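TEACHING EXERCISE
Course module: macromolecular assemblies
Task: Read the component lines below, then compare them to the predicted structure of the full complex.
Student: A.B.
Group: 4
Components provided:
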Amino acid sequence: MLSVSPDPVAEDESATSPYAVRVEDLSITYKTTFERKPTLKQALVRFGRGERKVHTVEALKNVSFDIRVGTAMGIIGSNGAGKSTLMRAMAGILPPTSGNVEVWGRASTLLALGVGFNKALSGRENIVLGGLAAGLSRREVEERVEEIAEWTELGEFIDMPMNTYSSGMAARVGFSVAVHMRPDILMIDEALSTGDAHFREKASAKMAELRDSARAMFLISHGLGSISEMCNDCIWLDKGRLMMRGSPEEVIDAYMTYVKVKKSPTTTEEM
Amino acid sequence: MTASTRERETDFEPVYHRYGPHRAGVPPLVPYFRELWHRRGFATEMSKASMRGANTSTFFGQAWLVLNPLLLAAVYYLLVTILRGRHDPMVFVHLTLGLFAFNLVSTSMSTGTKSVVSAGKLLINTAFPRLLIPLSAVRTALFRFLPTVPVYLVFHLVFLTRVWSPTMFLSLYFFGCLLLFSAGLAAFFATLQVYFRDTSSFLPFFVRIWMYLSPVLWLPENVAHFSKTLLTIIRLNPMYAMLGGYSETIQEQKVPDVGLFVSSGLWAVAVAVIGFLFFISRERDFAVRLT
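Instructor-supplied answer key:
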């Protein structure tokens, strides 16, 4: 079992708990079918042939860590390392197969465009639905929706169906929702890799502001540069295992050595 | 789902969540339903938004909601008239009442079935009680049903001019049963659709057969001469009790047998409990299945 704890830091004054998130021995295994769209017909055909096609995926294996209030945690790792699964487990979307996740505070919806699920509806309607699903009251949502729409700078597009949006525009809406819902625990998945230069700048500034107000922040990014810039703590996942935890510089160096890539302007920004 | 502890209704700040493995399937139900109630606004808004998306707020959209069941009633009435060889306004009024109510159930089922799968992106990125999704589909079906009420009342006024009685209020009980029953079915088939994506293709056939077996195109009197076993089978159909009670209270000015009340209520509650529990016990798996 891999368990890494941060260096002891001064106890936080927060009345509730010094921790924002505590993950204990978390494993997530799920069974899924090979087919993209499972159907009864295929199930019957397979049953007739006496085959049972179930694919077991071990997305996370015995991951433990704890995050104190005020941490900005970067999560790095190759594709399929379990980064998004870990975020979803902390947001309460994916149930643990074993182990526990404890979260003190309200987690934001993930940024992998949960908003925009119904392309026939406008950006504004999607924002309202996302906010209500996340547990805000109607009044709170109405207060925020203007602010969110304003911040995306989409102009009249905000009231058009989302199937008219470009991927960058949809990403703006998603990011704007995630940061304006005033979550206690902010989770951002691949935020800065979408959007144009202007929006990236604006998003970085907003995240820096939120890092100070939220209880904790998680950032998944392949842009290692933004991790070392934004975060004060970092974990590296590989094939579902927690490989290392430490300061962003150390972890990124170890990760770079492991995947045998030289630190170059390309890797720090685009990887 | 999230077994969260929330101190006050409006308090969002110190929320503590603990997510542990849920082997047994069903999460603690009291916090689940409290959370569900807390987020009911989402179901309402989702239903409103989907109706807006389907242009139901425009004039022709609204007109279609009335026109569609009317045309359906016309088609079935033509069929029944040809088969019986004579025109009977009483049959027409019964048919419209039964058909509109049956449509409520079948629309809830068909929209409910697809609801969870089509909410994919929201579902894999946000934690909320998933039961809200099929319930919102039932709300949509209810609001699509409502415009047919005045249409039926016009027919009632024309063909059953003198049939007005206080028993009509009892129809609300049977209507409530129909609604609860629909919600249970919507939840059940929504879950099935996640595992077998062709459920929604089979469903229309199943629904049509079910309608022929229910007292929509025929009156209970028409089958009275059937053998005892056959009658028992017909009466086992949950729609027999619900639609039978519904039309008796509205069109026959009589208080239905206690049996109809009891079996309607039992069917509705049983299907709702089974459908909801099946859905809730499986909903933690949805995020995995829909990625």
